[in-house]
Every structure is written in C-alpha cells, then in structure tokens.
C-alpha cells in the first residue's frame, strides 16, 4: 500500500491505472478509521481493481462551534486499518494542499439539507459537496462507497453525482454496529462509560419503531413519541431530533408508506450520536 500527500504525484499514479483500464473504488473518509470504514474498504476491494482511501479532515464542513480541532486524528492507526482491509492507496493531503488559497468557487447544496443534521449545521453539506467535487476529480473513481449511517450525506451525494454528471456510481453500505447495536462512530470514544451503556437505547428505539410499523402503525407522530419515550427514560442524553422523511428526497411524510427513513440524533456530554433505519412499506 502506498501513501500520497501531494495531488500531482497521486494523480500521475492514478492516471496510469486509468490508462490501463483498471476500475477504481474510492472510500472518502476523515480518518480515525474503525470497523465501519473497514466494511467500506472491504466492499470496494471486492468490486474493483484498485482501492483508494482518502483521509482528510475537511475544515469547510465544520461550523465555528464544532469539533474540527478536536476531531480525532491518527494516520499511523489509519494506515494499519486500510492496509488490513485491502486498500492499495491512501491519499492524505494537508489542508494547504487541498486549499492552497481560499476557494473562489464552492458548491451550494439547495435540497435535502434543511432537515435532520443539516438543519442545525448550515453550510455543512456545502463543505461536503465542495471537497467531494475536488476528490472525485483527483481520484477519478468508478465507484464511491459511503456508510448508510449518515443517510442524509448519502442522499446529498446522490444529488451531487446526478446533478454534476459525475461518472461515479454511489454505493451505500449498511451501518456497522457494535455487538450491542450501537452504530460504529469515531465519536463513540468521547462517551463516558455510563453514556456508552445508555447509548444502546438509540438503536433499540429504532427497533421498537420497526416493530410498531410491522404491526400496522402508519402514523409518524405516534412512532416518534414511542422513540422519544425510550430514549428519554433510558439515557441522560438530549434528543436533537427524531424525524421521519421520504428517502432519498427527505420530504415530509404524513402516512408511513413507500420508501422512508427514520433518523435521530442524541447529544451526550461530549459526543453527538446519529442513527437511522430505512423502510420500504
């Protein structure tokens, strides 16, 4: 496995593979890789000739009060995880390499951002779309792999690829969970031991919602109240939101039918956790 930090050097390497007709699978990350990322890399390995993992903590997608400086970083750790999973390349540019000057052109996401996490993070998905536009042009992937845990991001990226006509196939990969159901996340390390035990209630609330829907409940508000009760009684966390929308359009839904998502965010003392579940009814 090779590690590149310079765009020009990495591009020369990738162009050689493209000239030889090799397919490229791409896993964009912000590093501090865990088993969720491992599943993305392994899927990319199974479906492509070449696998590229990018590691870049993108400042454009962090708000003024968010955790950019404290976001966990450990390139040595990430190299071991990526190589074990079968990556051929790590592209790990610095901020000055990606943004040598303040960008004169950035992407603005107009749909699918005013709900869920996007509602409280104005400009976040503009930063995501901008950096992915750059990365798609640098890596030139045939397929790009993203975790379904961040379902809003997947929906936004689907729109980005479609609207900008990127020759990239989006491959969502199912959320990887701990044995007790908690979704894998780099931010789980910030939970206290008590909060870590409580956090299982997030997935349990989704399971309870699924059971209610399978039993015929089609009322969004009833389902949301059911989930609120579980989280509020079993955790010390503060609910940011529990919301239900069509998917991937992320539009309001009055009756639970068709394809939709139930998503939640809960804030603990030093970590904000998200989770979701997709339905076809």
TrEMBL record:
Q: Which family does it belong to?
A: Belongs to the pantothenate synthetase family.
Q: Tell me which NCBIfam families the record gives.
A: cyt_tran_rel (TIGR00125), panC (TIGR00018)
| Active-site residue numbers | 37 (proton donor)
Q: In which pathway does it act?
A: Cofactor biosynthesis; (R)-pantothenate biosynthesis; (R)-pantothenate from (R)-pantoate and beta-alanine: step 1/1
Q: Which InterPro entries match?
A: Cyt_trans-like, Pantoate_ligase, Pantoate_ligase_C, Rossmann-like_a/b/a_fold
- The name on file for this protein is Pantothenate synthetase
Q: Which residues bind ATP?
A: 30-37, 147-150, 176, 184-187
Keyword Cell membrane listed? no
What is the scientific name of the source organism?
A: Neobacillus piezotolerans
Q: Which residues bind (R)-pantoate?
A: 61, 153
Q: Which GO terms describe its cellular component?
A: cytosol
GO biological process terms, semicolon-separated: pantothenate biosynthetic process
Q: What does this protein do?
A: Catalyzes the condensation of pantoate with beta-alanine in an ATP-dependent reaction via a pantoyl-adenylate intermediate.
Gene for this chain: panC
Q: How does it assemble?
A: Homodimer.
Q: What is the catalytic activity of this protein?
A: (R)-pantoate + beta-alanine + ATP = (R)-pantothenate + AMP + diphosphate + H(+)
* EC annotation from Swiss-Prot or TrEMBL: 6.3.2.1
Further information: The reaction proceeds by a bi uni uni bi ping pong mechanism.
PANTHER family, per database record: CYTIDYLATE KINASE/PANTOATE-BETA-ALANINE LIGASE, PANTOATE--BETA-ALANINE LIGASE
Please tell me where this protein is predominantly located: cytoplasm
Has the keyword Repeat been applied to this entry? no
Q: Which GO terms describe its molecular function?
A: ATP binding; pantoate-beta-alanine ligase activity
Localization of this protein: Cytoplasm
């Amino acid at each position: 496995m090779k590690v590149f930090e310079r765009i020009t050097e990495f591009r020369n390497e990738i162009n050689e593979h493209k000239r030889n007709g090799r397919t490229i699978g791409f896993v964009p990350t912000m590093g501090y890789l865990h088993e969720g990322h491992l599943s993305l890399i392994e899927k990319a390995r199974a479906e492509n000739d070449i696998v590229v993992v990018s590691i870049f903590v993108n400042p454009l997608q962090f708000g003024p009060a968010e955790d950019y400086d404290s976001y966990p970083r450990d390139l040595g750790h990430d190299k071991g995880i990526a190589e074990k999973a079968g990556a051929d390349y790590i592209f790990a540019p610095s901020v000055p390499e990606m943004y040598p000057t303040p960008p004169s052109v950035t992407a603005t996401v107009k749909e699918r951002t005013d709900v869920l996490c996007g509602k409280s993070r104005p400009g976040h998905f503009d930063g995501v779309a901008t950096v992915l536009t750059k990365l798609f042009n640098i890596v030139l992937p045939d397929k790009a792999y993203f975790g379904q845990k961040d379902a809003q991001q997947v929906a936004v990226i689907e729109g980005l690829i479609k609207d900008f006509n990127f020759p990239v196939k989006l491959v969502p990969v199912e959320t990887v969970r701990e044995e007790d159901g908690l979704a894998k996340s780099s931010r789980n390390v910030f939970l206290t031991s008590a909060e870590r035990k409580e956090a299982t209630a997030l997935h349990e609330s989704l399971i309870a919602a699924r059971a209610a829907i399978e039993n015929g409940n089609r009322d969004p508000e009833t389902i949301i109240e059911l989930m609120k009760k579980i989280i509020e009684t079993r955790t010390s966390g503060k609910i940011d939101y529990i919301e239900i929308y069509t998917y991937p359009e992320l539009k309001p839904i009055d009756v639970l039918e068709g394809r939709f998502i139930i998503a939640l965010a809960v804030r603990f003392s030093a970590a904000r956790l998200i989770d979701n579940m997709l339905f076809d009814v």
